Amino acid sequence: MERTDDYQRHNCKSNEMVEEVEQTKIRLLRASVERQDPSSKEVDDLTLRRFLRARDLDIQKASLMFLKYLKWRQEFVPNSSISPSEVPNEIAQNKMFLQGTDKKGRPITVVLGRRHFQNKESLDEFKRFVVCALDKICARMPPGEEKFVVIGDLQGWGYANSDIRGYLASLSILQDYYPERLGKMFIVHAPYIFMAVWKIIYPFIDNNTRKKVSLFSPCEGWI
């Protein structure tokens, strides 16, 4: 019992130290980005903390990442949000659904791979759809929660659904502009033919994101 109490006290102190370090880093990051872009004053500490964590609390790297995000947001989402009316072709595929929360309270999103088809006319519409969806997911998060879960169901997926350009675009948006938002991604019912696509995509997934992705085939289980 004493060992358990000692461990809990040690763990509590460690958490307090980490929190103190993060708060100091957040203040320094805020001062840095506000000097370079006054609009960053409107951003809350939790957002800054996510960018810090994505760059291992390196203030300079986090500052560069955050300022890049602000510039992108101002240019790509000038009206602060993207309306479903701006992405009609993607919405019509009926491929993404919000499905409650997991035991940790994280919103769950289900994506049906067999319903996705490459938008050959405009990659921009697909990118806007990704941003629209991510913003909607984040808006559903309860107080105190910052992450979401994705279930990518590839049952029935075939070469007609393959869209490497779209996959890489959505990955870039997630990693560059929504850091520390993904809690877990489960890719289920992955057919053998998907592995050729996966081998192309995998090198572009950063190490932090790779740890959160689990890939399952119909017969073999986790890959």
TrEMBL record:
Q: Which Gene3D superfamilies match?
A: CRAL-TRIO lipid binding domain
Q: Which residues form the CRAL-TRIO domain?
A: 84-223
Sorted alphabetically, the keyword list is: Membrane, Transmembrane, Transmembrane helix
**InterPro entries, A to Z:** CRAL-TRIO_dom (IPR001251), CRAL-TRIO_dom_sf (IPR036865), CRAL/TRIO_N_dom (IPR011074), CRAL/TRIO_N_dom_sf (IPR036273)
Q: Where are the transmembrane segments?
A: 186-205
Q: Identify this protein by name.
A: CRAL-TRIO domain-containing protein
Which organism does this record belong to?
Hevea brasiliensis
Taxonomy, superkingdom:
Eukaryota
